[in-house]
């Protein structure tokens, strides 16, 4: 999902941040992570070292029927921290560390005199099943109800935010350290594991025993955000932390390309994670395509199912060019960057491809770092800006022939597919149009609406049209999801999208006919919630586009247990349920690696 708007100021060059502009009122779904708090934090020490509260699994809150999960550092990780040698500081570094800790303690004390917005309050943002979990070493022979389809052989992986340490100040759900959850289907047996992605940031904070890198969305806003940046710079200058090898969390996207499973957030380079033969996971390291990638990469690159090429964007919030486009051949050779001219840095979490083009959104959520000096957020909704889409040939050497088409008041956090319709000279874009545009980051009472929409970009006239795909009577909030990836960039009949209700939870998924608007729903069950549905084709040569299965992690908030549901995509009947040995928090995006591809890992 979105990363930080000010990651560039930490040593990277892109992403998104907290928003605090006033919103209109409404009595419908709240538009941010505003579930009741069930986390209990101990007071921080004078040195700001976070205390870790170990959960009591039997404790229940008076107003809820679920156990009380809290921020956890698992025993295994505590042992690892003790075993790993600490960096040896000299006398001056030790004195500098003590002084900077005292400054941070004063800053935290000042911040605690003011209430945090719910979008930055860790007692809200990581409460319930949004709370982090320990790593889970691989567990085999999981119990299965029903029958696993023979076509499912390989590993399902899903990324998510899972903070290693208790936050010392503000924290947004998107700020957490990346953790990948893996379910492997192998020779009739099912296994599960979950591991942190060993980012540069996580490794340093684990060795130091506390969070020292700024929380991009939860902390970096206003004057206190500037103070935290200066504090981080000072620690870097003294050699207490080292941001030179990235500051990202790798918690959003996953893609398998050229033998590499890549974990991504748009504030850094991707990280290569290996799936071991046992089904466990291991971080191989930060991945730069053999030295070819010098900048960050967004969390939603696209792999063309026909050519096998990977297409991606990289954006910068500090200096021009604010946006770059590049592609990578199936054997890992990266093209030169194509610089795309923008007047101001813009949040671009996603984009789309067709057979011949890349489709780039330039929308109304923009970055203005000077806003921090005035006490606000560096990310704002610019209502005076005209939203537009850029169309560029996939193989373009530069952006001189890029065509921009205006799309008034259109903000799509995710785009599900796009294709060309030559008979009308149009490109059709399928996305969920979100209002208000800053819903995910901004505390407000206005209801969130995420409307599945068809946007037509006419290359002949330069005009656009937009329509909701579903009828008003069927309208529900649809967010994370996908189409059949074997047809990415080509016309598709169906999209499989999360039912983001009650927001921010996901109660099931919808299968939507993109031409007729017909909707069929699968709900996960009473007090059961999940996340992004992942479509797995049964046979890539099947005549039916929907011939396959949907897999999704589901958590039972009544029994406080997690499972993996496998649903027939044609009739939406539940075919199998895999019992997961530990809790799986709500998370972000996933992928599936087939058994044959696993054998060819780099």
TrEMBL record:
One of its GO terms (cellular component) is chloroplast stroma. It is found in: Plastid, Chloroplast. GO terms for molecular function: 9-cis-epoxycarotenoid dioxygenase activity; metal ion binding. The keyword Disulfide bond does not apply. It catalyses: 9'-cis-neoxanthin + O2 = (3S,5R,6R)-3,5-dihydroxy-6,7-didehydro-5,6-dihydro-12'-apo-beta-caroten-12'-al + 2-cis,4-trans-xanthoxin; a 9-cis-epoxycarotenoid + O2 = a 12'-apo-carotenal + 2-cis,4-trans-xanthoxin; 9-cis-violaxanthin + O2 = (3S,5R,6S)-5,6-epoxy-3-hydroxy-5,6-dihydro-12'-apo-beta-caroten-12'-al + 2-cis,4-trans-xanthoxin. Its EC number is 1.13.11.51. Keywords: Abscisic acid biosynthesis, Chloroplast, Dioxygenase, Iron, Metal-binding, Oxidoreductase, Plastid, Transit peptide. Fe cation binds at residues 300, 349, 414, 589. Pfam families: RPE65. Binds 1 Fe(2+) ion per subunit. It comes from the Eukaryota. Residues 69-87 have a biased composition (Low complexity). Its cofactor is Fe(2+). Residues 1-27, 48-87 are annotated as: Disordered. Belongs to the carotenoid oxygenase family. This is 9-cis-epoxycarotenoid dioxygenase. It comes from Salix brachista.
């Amino acid at each position: 999902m979105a990363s930080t708007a000010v990651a560039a100021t930490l040593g990277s060059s892109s992403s998104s941040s907290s928003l605090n502009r006033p919103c209109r009122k409404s009595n419908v779904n709240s538009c941010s992570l505003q579930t009741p708090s069930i986390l209990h934090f101990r007071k921080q020490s004078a040195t700001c070292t976070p205390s870790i509260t170990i959960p009591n699994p039997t404790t229940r809150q008076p107003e809820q029927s679920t156990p009380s999960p809290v921020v956890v550092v698992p025993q295994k990780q505590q042992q690892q921290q003790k075993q790993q040698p600490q960096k040896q500081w000299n006398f001056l570094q030790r004195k500098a560390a003590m002084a900077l800790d005292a400054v941070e303690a004063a800053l935290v004390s000042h911040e605690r005199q003011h209430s945090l917005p719910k979008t930055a309050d860790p007692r809200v943002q990581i409460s319930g099943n949004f709370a982090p979990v320990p790593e889970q070493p691989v567990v085999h022979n999981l119990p299965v109800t029903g029958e696993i389809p023979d076509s499912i052989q390989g590993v399902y992986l899903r990324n998510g935010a899972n903070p290693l340490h208790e936050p010392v100040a503000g924290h947004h759900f998107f700020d957490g350290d990346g953790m990948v959850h893996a379910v492997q289907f192998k020779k009739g047996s099912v296994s599960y594991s979950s591991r942190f992605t060993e980012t540069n940031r996580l490794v340093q904070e684990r060795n130091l025993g506390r969070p020292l890198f700024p929380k991009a969305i939860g902390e970096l806003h206003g004057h206190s955000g500037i103070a935290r940046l200066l504090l981080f710079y000072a620690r870097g200058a003294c050699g207490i932390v080292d941001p030179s090898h990235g500051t990202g969390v790798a918690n959003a996207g996953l893609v398998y390309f050229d033998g590499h499973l890549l974990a991504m957030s748009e504030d850094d380079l991707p990280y290569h994670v290996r799936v071991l033969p046992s089904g466990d996971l291991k971080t191989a390291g930060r991945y730069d395509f053999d030295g070819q990638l010098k900048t960050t990469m967004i969390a939603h690159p696209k792999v063309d199912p026909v050519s096998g090429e990977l297409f991606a964007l990289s954006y910068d919030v500090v200096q021009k060019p604010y946006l770059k486009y590049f592609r990578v051949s199936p054997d890992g050779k990266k093209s030169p960057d194509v610089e795309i001219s923008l007047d101001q840095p813009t949040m671009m979490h996603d984009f789309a491809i067709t057979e011949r083009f890349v489709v780039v959104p330039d929308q109304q959520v923009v970055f203005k770092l000077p806003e921090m000096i005035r006490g606000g957020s560096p990310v704002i909704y610019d209502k005076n800006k005209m939203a537009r889409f850029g169309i560029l040939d996939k193989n373009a050497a530069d952006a001189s022939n890029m065509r921009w088409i205006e799309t008034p008041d259109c903000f799509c956090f995710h785009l599900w597919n796009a294709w060309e319709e030559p008979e009308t000279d149009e490109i059709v874009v399928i996305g969920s149009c979100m209002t208000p545009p800053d819903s995910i980051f901004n505390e407000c009472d206005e209801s969130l609406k995420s409307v599945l929409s068809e946007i037509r970009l006419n290359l002949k006239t330069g005009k656009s049209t937009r329509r909701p795909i579903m009828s008003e009577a069927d309208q529900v909030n649809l967010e994370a999801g996908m189409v059949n990836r074997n047809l990415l960039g080509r016309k598709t009949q169906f999209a499989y999208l999360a039912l983001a209700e009650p927001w921010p939870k996901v109660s099931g998924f919808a299968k939507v006919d993109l031409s007729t608007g017909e909707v069929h729903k699968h709900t996960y069950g009473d007090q059961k919630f999940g996340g992004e549905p992942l479509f797995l084709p049964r046979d890539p040569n099947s005549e039916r586009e929907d011939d396959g299965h949907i897999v999704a992690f589901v958590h039972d908030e009544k029994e406080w247990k997690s499972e993996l549901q496998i649903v027939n995509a044609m009739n939406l009947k539940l075919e199998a349920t895999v019992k997961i040995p530990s809790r799986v928090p709500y998370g972000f995006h996933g992928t599936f690696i087939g058994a044959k591809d696993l054998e060819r890992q780099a």
